[in-house]
């Protein structure tokens, strides 16, 4: 089964399309509008961009 990998672009590291990526991706169930669901690895960015709300890049 091919997994989907959602990786942040231009991150501090190069993400592997693997569940063993150093960032520690979490497996999440993605729901499509059609109603189908797929498992996807969500890779967190390592530059903390999620925590910089309202900040400039
Ligand atoms: Zn990763």
Secondary-structure map with pairings?
Elements: E1 4-6, E2 26-31, E3 37-42
Parallel strand pairs: 1-3
Antiparallel strand pairs: 2-3
The structure holds zinc ion.
Q: Your description of this structure?
A:
The radius of gyration is 13 Å and the shape is globular. A hairpin with a 5-residue loop joins strand 2 and strand 3. Strands 1-3-2 form a three-stranded mixed sheet, with no helix packed on it. The chain is built from no helices and three strands. The protein has 57 residues and is mainly β. It binds zinc ion. Zinc ion binds next to loops.
Counting DSSP H or I runs of 4 or more residues, the number of helices is: 0
Note the overall shape: globular
Strand residues, percent: 25-35%
pLDDT averaged over residues: 86
For the largest beta-sheet, the strand count, sense and barrel status come to: 3 strands, mixed
What's the β-strand tally?
A: 3
**Cα end-to-end separation:** 37 Å
Count of the separate structural domains: 1
* Low-pLDDT residue intervals, each spanning 5 or more residues: none
Element order: H for helix, E for strand: EEE
Sheet/helix structural class: mainly beta
